[in-house]
Amino acid sequence: MGFQNVLVAQSGGPTTAINATLAGVIKGALESERIEQIYGSLNGIEGVLHGRIIDIRRSIKSQADLKLLSVTPAMALGSCRFRLPKYENDPAIYKTIGDVFEKLQIGYFFYIGGNDSMDTAHKLSDYFAQTGRDIRVIGIPKTIDNDLPVTDHTPGFGCAAKYIATAMSEIIRDCEVYLVPSVTIVEIMGRNAGWLTAAAALPNAVGESAPHLVYLPEAPFDAEQFLEDVKEQQRKHKCVVVAVSEGVKNPDGTYAAETFQSGKVDAFGHKYLSGVGKYLETLVAEKIGCKVRSIELNVLQRCAAHIASKTDIDESVRIGAAAVDAALAGETGKFMMFRRVSDNPYAIKVETCEVALVANQEKVVPKEWINERGNHVTREVFTYLMPLIQGTCEIPLKDGLPVHFLFDKTLVAY
Amino acid sequence: MGFQNVLVAQSGGPTTAINATLAGVIKGALESERIEQIYGSLNGIEGVLHGRIIDIRRSIKSQADLKLLSVTPAMALGSCRFRLPKYENDPAIYKTIGDVFEKLQIGYFFYIGGNDSMDTAHKLSDYFAQTGRDIRVIGIPKTIDNDLPVTDHTPGFGCAAKYIATAMSEIIRDCEVYLVPSVTIVEIMGRNAGWLTAAAALPNAVGESAPHLVYLPEAPFDAEQFLEDVKEQQRKHKCVVVAVSEGVKNPDGTYAAETFQSGKVDAFGHKYLSGVGKYLETLVAEKIGCKVRSIELNVLQRCAAHIASKTDIDESVRIGAAAVDAALAGETGKFMMFRRVSDNPYAIKVETCEVALVANQEKVVPKEWINERGNHVTREVFTYLMPLIQGTCEIPLKDGLPVHFLFDKTLVAY
Of A361, A287, A306, whose CA–CA distance to A122 is shortest? Predict the structure, then answer.
């Protein structure tokens, strides 16, 4: 029998629910009699490389602690944007990681992250298998973008979708107050996947006529056609509301907002996206000349825990705990996923698949969920999205402000 | 005895609580046996000028309707940005308004708005008094900016302050996740008054070290000093969080963001403010060169009903109902205000004063509530602010999304 200690880490961009998944892993580990120590690596795999490991039990002393952690936004263990090189390019880094795991007697490693993190989980599980170590590596998804394949949806997406849909409902009310015709453009995150922008259309599902236009990155974007679309909507609506993904692309494949951008890229070569809202605002002002404003929903999309989806938080805890069960059952090199059993009543099962199926893959909104004109979603999207935003979490408050869980970050000596 | 019908209207920028005040006026009117019809003017005083008047009773049929209206953001009767000219410059417009009031037998007019709207209330009450009409005009405050004098605070401010403080708490968590030093700049509304930006400091009151720097328009802003402040904070904190008011001004009195602005002005000659966050982001990137981002909290500050302050909503209803009582008691040309009786336990009284004292006046944050360096607030601010954000409202949901109250806008024939 191999080592019986657990190591868990978080990676990639923050979400509202990634700490709920961490809480699930901790819960699963605490409940198992086989597991001894529970360690957390600070700032993802970088914590392993730089000796920044904490003892989770120093901080988590009760069910109340776990519950508070599960509704604390962003990443309580910190994050990194580090991609593990291929083994043949840097065997030393694998040896360093292996040594740390050996010293800490890690038998189970849980990596909570997005596509890039799944690549790390894949490489590590291969390395441990090839070097004959019984260290089980499980990748657990998180991303507000919902762009991971195989799984029905990703933990963290439901909370972001709920914030966006709620904010849109309120922005729609705000838009209507004046008599003067206006155009309001709301820019939404999601990179190359339109899931979050589709969620901006949810007010339509409960009877709002707005948003009137919804542009996903999956449909080609054309500035001329956009202006025609706006003019057409203005014939029907005094206040036209537009939802647009940060990632919409011109017919030539360049990002629509590219001229407004700095051209900076992140550690993975992804372009920083922002500015399409401002760009379209300028277009409308110049070419149509009516009152126009753009709104960027910004980072609240990934951290607005005050309006978390209970479904998302509960599922995120569940998938974390299930990852521990899977590892204890002998699985490794696996990815935790949701399979939807039914839309109504909504039901999912938590399953596993090979993490290799997920690493570096993107799942986008299917073409048939976008209308023919490429300027709105079809109602099928709502059937998919609606269950994910249901339920309200109880958020602990102190003097009217949210209380968040913070780990004692005293490092473990080893 | 004069006419016994009520007319109510809303004016200026939207807030989360202005419909609560409308609900209070309607409640007060429904409860009085003396009041007969209750009319609403669409889009403020412009509805009177253009014959756009509705019968409130067509829509409000129950306490449940009033309750839903009170938690619906923005302005259910619509708004305007119209300043009534001086009588001597346009007597005809006063005659038009007087004729409509006569036809509709209006004895009581309630105008819910900000500084500019109080000017209209003042002019109309003078006009009615001078022409010997017993039409009682009461101005009721609303503004997220909290910049009206005499009253302890304005309805709508508490909700905005709560949204801002909550968003800041969550943004602080989001900022901390990476190891790389960073600066996050959050731009906040409030025009020339720093009340909302002061609310961004509330996380400090519950134990957060962030935000580390808080710039109010009441203190002169100097870009060089700002960069020094950031560098000083960077010696103590990996992630420096800055709250800055859209209205901060250079020592020469120009807006700090002016170079980033379009130069457009609104109907009252106020400059459109935006861009100071972007401006400071650029400054930090160029002069310090670390990771930096700016976040504009945007219109959610004035419409995020999903996280309304119960104190604000309840008080807003109360001040609306009290306005009806005041008018019935014979008052006119008055402004409804809160007088704070005690901080702890928090208690207010609703009183009246001359609306002339308020029209076109601004109340800003007192100098003694800003630190000597002009880069943060003192703790006295928290004693003032804390009671205003307390309490959580029950927000009716349908399929997980907020339900809003909409009036039947069938026009009254007269």
Answer: A361
Phi, psi of A319 (to 5 degrees): -70, -30
Same structural domain, A319 and A229: no
Taking contacts as CB-CB distances below 8 angstroms, the residues of chain A near B43 are 178-179
Residue from A300, A311, A344, A384 to probe the interface with B (highest B Cβ count within 10 Å): A300
Peptide linkage before A251 cis (omega within 30 of 0): no
CB contact under 8 A, B178 and A306: no
**Among B170, B296, B386, beta carbon nearest to A306:** B170
Size of interface A-B (CB pairs under 8 A): 146
Residues of B catalogued as catalytic: 145
- Amino acid, single-letter form, for residue B159: C
Inter-chain CB proximity A303 and B398 less than 8 Å: no
Residue A253 lies in a domain: yes
Quote the tokens at residue B280.
């400071």
Rounded CA gap, A126 and A379, in Å? 42
Strand partners, A398: A401
Lowest mean pLDDT among A91-100, A300-309, A358-367, A400-409: A358-367
Distance from CA of A307 to the nearest CA of B (A): 8
Q: Are residues B121 and B91 in the same domain?
A: yes
Q: How many other C-beta atoms lie within 10 A of the C-beta of residue B50?
A: 15
Nearest residue on chain B to A170, alpha-carbon basis: B303
Work out the minimum CA distance from B403 to partner chain A, whole angstroms: 9
Q: Where among B253, B281, B303 does a domain terminate?
A: B303
**A-chain residues near B162 (CB < 8 A):** 400
User: How does pLDDT run across A328-364, given as a tens digit for each residue?
Assistant: 999 999 999 999 999 999 999 999 999 999 877 889 9
* % of chain A with per-residue pLDDT over 90: 89
What is residue B170's three-state secondary structure? helix
Helix (H) or strand (E) holding B303: helix B300-303
What pLDDT is recorded for position B266? 43
**DSSP code for B309:** B
Matching residue, tokens 């990194």: A80
Find the CB nearest A162 among B170, B171, B400: B400
For residue A345, is the peptide bond before it cis, meaning its omega torsion is within 30 degrees of 0? yes
DSSP letter for each residue of A24-76: HHHHHHHH-SS---EEEETTTHHHHHTT-EEEGGGT--SHHHHHHHHT--S-T
Which residues constitute the domain of residue B322? 5-143+306-361+393-402
Contact residues on chain A for B402, CB-CB shorter than 8 A? 166, 169-170
Structure tokens at A113: 């992250």
Closest-CA distance, A336 to chain B, in angstroms, reads: 23
Do B64 and B119 have their domain in common?
Answer: yes
Rounded CA gap, B202 and A96, in Å?
Answer: 44
CATH number at residue A334: 3.40.50.450
Task: Identify the CATH number of the domain in which residue B193 sits.
Answer: 3.40.50.460
CA-CA distance, B227 to B220, in Å (whole number)? 14
Say whether A90 is catalytic: no
Q: Which ipTM value was assigned to this complex?
A: 0.95
Q: Is the model's pLDDT at A397 over the cut of 90?
A: yes
